[in-house]
Amino acid sequence: MKILLATNNNAKIERLKKLFHQIDSNIEVYSISDLGLPIVEVTEDRPTLTENAEQKAKTYLGKVDMPILGNDVGLYIEGEGFVNAPKRIALGGLDTNTLSKEEISEKMLNFWKGIATKYGGEVDAAWIDSFVLLYPDRKINRAESRREIILTNQEFGKSHLETPIRRLYYSKTTNKPVLLHTEEEEEKEMLPIVTALKKILEL
Description:
single chain; 203 residues; alpha+beta; Maf protein; 8-stranded mixed sheet; 8 strands; 33% helix; 25% strand; globular
């Protein structure tokens, strides 16, 4: 089976490729750049994560002869609800084209730190991932996962530039900062996502 990942986020691509390989090493996972497809920036303005994920997948419908995975993720924070458009808020209206990846990452990091600081340095939160697998015949499989975390204003190490928030939280599953996970602990943390991916694959 071949799958196209409808995302330009390199950190997300690396994670999903690894998880699919764990599920079944025979699954071939491709990024947009792997196939030389034009990158399309999708405005995530739908009312739900699932609808955003579906919108991303449909962007590449008809351009490849394989299922397309769309994914949208939201962070639910106790006292805040879902944090909508965190990047736009963190950048304060600045054009991303005028900033380096490092500058964007630093602004995002400070944004998340600010929320944790508002609640005394740490706050309960949860990652909600919505997945949509869109087949060439327009069949759609959907699934959702939830991972409970505690967001803090402390940095526990260095992370991918595109996921600076990973420096700041620890998993309730392992009671440990995610950047300090062993491979086994990371598998436990990712189990809800693996379960969701198996569901859309109908395994």
